[in-house]
Amino acid sequence: MLEMKDRSGRRLGVQDRNSARIGSTQMMHVAPQCTTVDGVLNINKEAGWTSHDVVGQVRHLLGGMKVGHAGTLDPMATGVLPVLVGRATRLAEYLLEWDKEYEAVLRLGETTDTQDATGTVLEHRSTDGVTPDGLNGVIARFRGPLEQVPPMYSAVKVGGVPLYKAARAGKTIAREPRTIVLHSLEVVALHERDVTLRVVCSKGTYVRTLCADIGEALEVGGHLRSLVRTRVGPFSLGQALTVNDLATHHACGRLQHDLHSMDQVLDWLPSVEVDDQAAARAKHGVPVSPERVVSGREAAVGAKPGTAIRIHDSRGRLVAIGRFLDSRSQTIRIEKVLLSKDS
Asked: What digits encode the pLDDT tens for the residues 27-47?
């Protein structure tokens, strides 16, 4: 049984641990046998589980297959977690570029040491002076590109040490701000001290830090009370499966229907088809020369410099991901091989 903890390392309550134990027990009754699969699962992470917990449960379910994820969610948060299976684990760096959408509840008037509801309240302040117009005016200042300082309770490393380890030891480390983009930030509801926000943001955005910063801008303080990730790239919460849903589907032989192929999740990248000789050599990491490209060269060349390119063989299979060495030679350097050498 995996020990369930919150992000600051404290153990979850008995009820939460019992819920997790029930889920694990249900999974143990599923025979961990599965044909080789490669693809991405749209998982609905439940509260109290770390993203690593979800990966471990899916790996157990699939009989020890290689499993990873794209985009960490804090234990208190719920919602969409893309889980990568088999060779799809090689795609994490590309999928992390997806934008994300959240429904967040900001509690005004309370500042915590973790910037969310799992932490200790450090200060209470009156919110009597906060008006809807004033709130909307402050919210407008946070739209678009902005600099954000990563929170102390995060996995960001400074000097090779995760910040959360220093935070647990009572230390505060200087952090460099990072540029993020809030594509959309809207007030969905306002009820007393709680503000429900819809957030669409770039990778690297800490929504709890956003909530804390909005609270400070309003001069009342604030923290993230709850968080649901409603979308990651093309994956929405409405189509997401819980781990127990996945176990049931696996037992019924429906797992293949739940998997999104590597080609599907990368369909936003330009694509080229290469001849059989180039495809065979690409499986060994050999660059593709322009005369070996059968189709799609124009779209690939016209893409933004440095854009990743899908490389397909004559059977339509995704062989690898590459990039142009330079626009003049149009030679494609192989970056990730996605088809086995004997396929």
From this structure: 434 444 445 589 999 999 999
pTM of the model: 0.85
Q: What does each C-alpha distance from 24 to 61, 83, 86, 250, 270 come to in angstroms?
A: 10, 18, 22, 14, 41
Cβ atoms within 10 Å, residue 117: 18
The structural domain count of the chain equals: 3
> Tokens 């016209």 map to which residue?
302
Please tell me which residue in 6, 53, 74, 258 is annotated as part of the active site.
74
**Class of residue 41 by CB neighbours under 10 A (exposed 0-12, middle 13-18, buried 19+):** buried
Cα dihedral: 154, 156, 158, 163 (round 10)? 10
Mind listing the pLDDT tens digit for each residue in 274-285?
999 999 999 999
Burial status of residue 174 (CB atoms within 10 A of its CB: 0-12, 13-18, 19 or more):
exposed
In a domain, 208, yes or no: yes
Neighbours of 312 (CB within 10 A): 20
Q: Collapsing DSSP states into helix, strand and coil, what is residue 257? A: helix
Please spell the DSSP secondary structure of 10-47, one letter per residue: PBPPHHHHHHHHHHHHHHHTS--------EEEEEEEPT
The verdict on whether 74 is a catalytic residue reads yes
Same domain, 208 and 179: yes
Percentage of the chain beyond pLDDT 70 is 89
**Same-domain pairing of 138 and 224:** yes
